[in-house]
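Work Package 3 (structural annotation) set out to generate three-dimensional models for the target panel prioritized at the project kickoff. During this period the team completed the workflow that converts sequence records into discrete structure tokens, so that structures can be stored uniformly alongside our sequence database. As a representative example, we reproduce one entry of 339 residues exactly as it appears in the project archive.
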Amino acid sequence: MKKLHLLNWLFFSSLLLILIGCGGGGGGTTTESGTVALFVTDNLEDYDHVITTITGVEILHTGSGASCSILSEAVTLDIAELSSEFLLLDLTSCAAGQFNRIRVEMSSTVELTLNEITDEECTFTSYKDNENKPNVLQCNGDTCSMEINGMVNVVVRQNTSLVLDFDLKEFEVENLGEPECTVTMKVEPLNANDIDDKKNKGNKESIKGVISDLDSTNQTFTLTKNKNIFTVLYSDVNQEGIDDLLTFAQDNQLKTKVRCSAIDLTSNECTASEIYVQVEGTVSNLTASTLKLTFNPEISVDYTNAEVEGTLVDSARTEVKLFGFDGTSYLAQEVEVES
């Protein structure tokens, strides 16, 4: 499985799902619709990786039966990477209305890495011996879910935000590194002040997608995420050889993450502050500071200042996060050797 490299897990302390919506009021009975934006973030420290798959997110009204699915396809995340950002997962049109429940579904499997112990066989398990309480994980077979209590008003031509905190104080792991490794967690809503506080501390909204229509003169490009299309302005990005890096990403249709100083969800425009490109391949010609990475085509990578996870050797399968180009080599921020 292709990993998304993530940093800093404190016992699952703060995975946030941010839902920003536009629409009309009234219990989901109106036919007017708006847009719901689904983001994810965390505030974790101890764990190096927590890789799982979110298979669905839905907002509901338990009285009227109104509902709207706001995640169009399953997404596999290494949540530990998201300690300083809100990663956009989807934008979805929903009928306007009032909702009082959020349902999150995920795969029962989770991969954890802590202090070089990697356990790919951990499973989520129901919270606290399957107690029937709100906002807690319930598991059945290969699927786990949680229903979160809280009002979500999707109001015509206005933005509404809802934040869910996967509370890491309630995150529990048993038997890490052993055959019966299990993980459970609890989720509580956060208020708008918590989101503002994280933004004041430097959290940025980000989007991961594929580049097209690169215009190096006007310093813009199109970024496609699922079915959603964003215009990105990168004139504020101060990274060496950024035009060459973006051309490389576009030519090879590589996943590119854009951190935005601001996202306008009305016009789908992002003003970029940082840009990173993910590439995966096989190592050769390894030196103390550079390597050749073969995927298609072969490229030279300078990893002098990169964070390296795992042992780099020739023929190792490796994922590299690139941030620039010096005229000869692409510049790596992170290098992860796949186990």
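Residues 107 and 143 are 5 Å apart (CA to CA).
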